[in-house]
From TrEMBL:
InterPro entries given in the database record: Cyt_c-like_dom, Cyt_c-like_dom_sf, Cytochrome_c_Peroxidase/MauG, DHOR
Source lineage: Bacteria, Pseudomonadati, Pseudomonadota, Betaproteobacteria, Burkholderiales
Coiled coil start-end: none
GO molecular function annotations of the record: cytochrome-c peroxidase activity; electron transfer activity; heme binding; metal ion binding
Cited PROSITE patterns: CYTC
Alphabetical list of PANTHER family matching this protein: CYTOCHROME C DOMAIN-CONTAINING PROTEIN, CYTOCHROME C PEROXIDASE-RELATED
UniProt source species: Pollutimonas thiosulfatoxidans
Keywords for the protein's UniProt record, in alphabetical order: Heme, Iron, Metal-binding
Stretches assigned to the Cytochrome c domain: 317-449
Name of the protein: Thiol oxidoreductase
Amino acid sequence: MQGGAGTVNKIVNADIYSHPAANLDFEGRQEFMVGNGLFRKDWVSSPSSTQASDGLGPLFNARSCQGCHVKDGRGTVPGFDPLEQNDAVALLVRLSLPASAEEARQRIDQGEVASLPDPVYGHQLQPFAVAGLPAEGQIKIDYEEIPVRLSGGETSTLMNPSYRIENLGYGPLHPQTRLSPRLAPPMLGLGLLEAIHQDDILANAARDHGDGVSGRANWIRDPQTGQQVLGRFNWKAGQPTVAHQSANAFSGDMGLSTPMFPRHSGDCTPSQKLCHDMPHGAQAHLGEHEVPARLMDFVTTYSENLALPQRREVSDARVLAGKKLFYESNCIACHVPKYVTRRDAERPEHRFQLIWPYTDLLLHDMGSGLASDHAEGDASGREWRTPPLWGIGLTKTVNPNATWLHDGRARSLLEAILWHGGEAQAARDRVVAMTPAERADLIRFLESL
């Protein structure tokens, strides 16, 4: 019951990530179903006869939330075979400049911006555009094979990506612009993660975990209140709540205005003048935003209540052996197994639940191999938030083309482990030193989650 009372025991198929939490009441399930429709629907450009669904863009990465979060799971990166590479819909590319000037550094430190955007292309590359407007460009990926020798005579091959942008629609990028690809993560259990008490997360940062592990919080500015709040979501813990994360995706990924991010033009910059002249989809009789507050509430309810599937083979001897190895290798220094959610959580179904997400929701230095040279708020280019592991064993059941890590470079769970460095180097080395049978047991445990 890794998701508490909301855990579901359903047939394991491609829809296993898409069920409502089992403890949702009737009204909650109704809102969930409406949110599901909004999460899946394709938005269209303005003007359009479908006035409740227009406003896409002018620049965008996808037409729907589901376009990136495939069946509420991980997104898909372009193929590892150069001949099979397709459009990168779910792999976003963050753009930023180094904060060298004192004024710029102060803006980041004070939470006004998470990073400094490219002066022409903004915070994020948009590979698609509405009719009559050039798209910003397309990401291309080259992979270098890196063999890693393992104990017991085995060898694993890692794929090291390098990125470039082609077909730039608005001239060259700034010479110092840095690229940081981000793969759409799974949507499971987000409301339960939000319901973990802040003090429990901060206690993880204060605890001595051994192996030089020292996670830290990412404090960010709430765009509505201006207060410093704890980041929990996204690859750099750059968003404090599910509502913030959802609104940010509507704005940055689809160019749709919301009460939290009211710009109709999304990530269009002042240099992209034609972009600002495009018609928007706000309708006076529906509200001043393309995605009004009530629709945002539906999407947030949906995103907060996607249920965790019940674990499988929990009594299997090999699964239990793998769990023992997971603990003994000190993987739990970052992937903290369990919490009890707060009694005063906003939604009753999230209150006082014993959950097993296997994350500390903190930032960790993961070494040079995973570094992106893109800082975000307090998070450096080498730091990443510990991703939850619950549900990870069904990743490819939901999306057979799914891969792991922040940019999808890992084709297997073992490859994802072998990319760990920095604070996770010692735990990673213990996995390398295991016998082949022990490594198989470890992966079997992860696949049971």
